[in-house]
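Table S7 (text form). Paired inputs.
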Amino acid sequence: MAKAAVEARNVTKAFGDGPERVLALDNVSVEIRENEFFTLLGPSGCGKTTLLRLIAGFDHPTNGSILLNGEDISHLPPFKRPVNTVFQSYALFPHMSVADNIGFGLEMQGKPKSEVASTVDDMLRLVRMEELKNRKTSQISGGQQQRVALARALAPHPNVLLLDEPLSALDLKLRKEMQIELKRLQNETGITFVFVTHDQEEALTMSDRIAVMAHGRVLQLDTPTGLYERPGSRDVASFIGTMNFFDGKVSKVEGTKVSVEAQGLGQIQGERGERAFAEGDRIQVAIRPE
């Protein structure tokens, strides 16, 4: 199994005090592996962006710790972490060229001009924008701006790239194109990507693993197939894809097979997974439309 690139250990994050106190994260533990496309998925206010900000260093945990490659970085400032972030608004410099935007961070680090130029050329090839290197970013499309933002974040070769809903400003066709592009970039660079979204299709399309979050907690962490086929709760089942729910009563249990008398469906049979059932138990049956 791959090593952990990022770990959140029993992380709690609260904002405010007294009656105004808001618990954004409630004892969250997550392990993100090296070279993994990992997604934090959930509705607005579930805590996913808060966790991303803790990894980036823009906020610090109230309790618990954030580890990068096994080192506790909970209270390191952002500029001391080998982590870069691509924001929802790309924050490009409109008066600068594509190439200058990509090289800006490297120049701020004091890298030699020859190294900056070589890295910029590499990044332009990676995001397939060599012909637009001298164009100002105010003169290119939204999808192209997003590629520039990605190239700028990847140029310093961070250990981890954090992506905070970077596709939300794009139209549907561009979003779908960029989903493929992001997965290609992650495969080619081998960098750990941590992606935040509320869009289940984005998550299922690109991710190696997904943490479904709600109310400041991780409800389930699994592969896209695992979440879709074996949701661990009604909340996860209703959030991932489309699901029909029926009241039922367990009529027979044989090993891993469970027979259920479901209202409106008659007798149906399924796998119990890790759950323990007894005859007569009242349960809910979740069935995908397909």
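Next pair, protein 2 of 2.
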Amino acid sequence: MSMGSQGRLAIDTVLPFDGSSLPLEFDTENLAKTGTIIDTAGIRGTRSHQQERTRTGNYSVAGTIEMFPAPAELNNVLEWIMGGAPTVGTPVGSTTFPLAETIPTREVLIDRVARRFEYAACKVNRATFSSREGEALKLALDLVGTTELVTATAFPTLTYALEAPFVFMDAVLTLQSATRNMKDVTIIIDNVLDVAFNNSTTASTIVASDRIISLSCLNPFVAADIALYDQALAGATASVIFTNGNFKLTFTFGGRLQFPAESPAVAGKGEIPLRLNGIARKNGTTDELSIVLDLTG
């Protein structure tokens, strides 16, 4: 039997996959080829469709990989998400991952036991970082690629990162110049990929057409945090920092986070929450987001 527990996943910048490829521990995946059949479906005196009047159409490659990434695994995927070339050592021992106008590609290898599946030229359409009370930091990578290759080639021998994940209890939200309590947090980096097939069976171009970065969090509605409700249009800088021993992951919203007003509501006898749904926008020359990963403490 092909059991999910036996599955494996790796990424690389170039083919073939080998001992230098980067393994990722994952929770679920559904990256898949989805084909089409073109049917003329014309009128010919019957309701039946004729097999001889069909052709193979385009096929797409898309799907999501969900994982609870270790710090070393984040180090291998953040450039894939953000696009910009990482800068090492600012501050010392850390790597800064900036935004860029273009998004790099990665080759993805998935071992589904009976066969291995290679997906070419995959780009990150959307990356969702999320966590809540009592949970680890989760990362969902929505990918778009070009082709699928099914092979019986052996999965390379790779060493997985044996590091503890970041967890919600690690998180510190700073907003409107003060640290804030929160019950959950979600950060989405949406590269809004535009996929064109042109005169090709598979995707011929995958281009980032826009960028929408958002932060959502659920906060207690208390007098000390009243500044979080109905914030000014100018918005504010903000940060979310996860610290795990010597590891630190920092999301810095250096541009402006803008939050349209959403009134709190009394839904029962429990604590009244305030949901914040903000969009990060560039301010002058300051990008809307940068991510710093410190692997040394």
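The helical segments are 71-82.
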